[in-house]
Write a structure and sequence with these properties.
Layout: E1 2-6, H1 10-22, E2 26-31, H2 39-56, E3 60-62, H3 68-76, H4 82-100, E4 105-108, H5 118-132, E5 135-136, H6 145-155, H7 166-173
Parallel strand pairs: 1-2, 1-4, 2-3, 4-5
Helix pairs in contact: 1-2, 1-6, 4-5
The structure holds iron/sulfur cluster.
Iron/sulfur cluster (SF4) binds near residues 35, 87, 163, 164 and 165.
Length: about 180
């Protein structure tokens, strides 16, 4: 199975990619994360994603269209849960890429994180898959989270302290 794996960051990918490879998936990584602010933080995380993919022997396809103003207009300013839109935007782009590349399915390294909204991952991924005619595979990989922390420390990969957007940075540090 050829699987396009949305890679949110190096630490999450460090255990997710081997998990899929052990299940005989032919993994191609895909980076599209315009939700990560500011720009230098985005670059640090992209560097970590590249490092993990190189170690795993996986190609990383990069969509570097990065426009925080467009992200705030499209995602942060809308009605309803911000995170579902954010996840949906990234998975829709991944589904489009997967369909264009003739992949059998797509998934995301977000599914290893206990801090993410897994119902949003599941529903947004399924919707994106339907729109683009490619299967979305949801796997609850949260039990591997501790392993991802261990692996990213071992590899010396940058580990972020907040989810990604400026709102999440404020939520993380406002009490400190
Ligand atoms: S907290 Fe994370 S998932 Fe939610 S909108 Fe911000 S970057 Fe996206």
């Amino acid at each position: 199975m050829k699987l396009l794996l949305h890679v949110c960051c190096g630490p999450c990918a460090s255990a997710t990619i081997p998990w899929w490879q052990e299940r005989r998936a032919e993994v191609v990584g895909f980076s599209f994360n315009p939700n990560v602010h500011p720009l230098l933080e985005y670059r640090r995380r992209l560097t970590g994603a590249r490092e993990v993919c190189e170690v795993a022997g996986v190609e990383l396809v990069e969509d570097q269209s990065y426009d925080p103003a467009a992200w705030f207009a499209a995602v942060a300013a809308g009605e309803g849960p911000r995170c579902a839109r954010c996840i949906g935007q990234r998975l829709d782009r991944t589904a489009r890429e997967a369909a264009g590349r003739g992949c059998d399915a797509f998934s995301t390294s977000l599914s290893i994180s206990p801090w993410q909204d897994h119902e949003a991952i599941r529903s947004q991924g399924a919707g994106a898959g339907e729109r683009h005619g490619v299967e979305f595979i949801y796997e609850d990989l949260r039990p591997l989270y501790a392993e991802s922390r261990r692996l990213s420390r071992q590899l010396g990969i940058y580990r972020q302290k907040y989810c990604g957007c400026l709102v999440s940075e404020w939520e993380r540090y406002r009490e400190s």
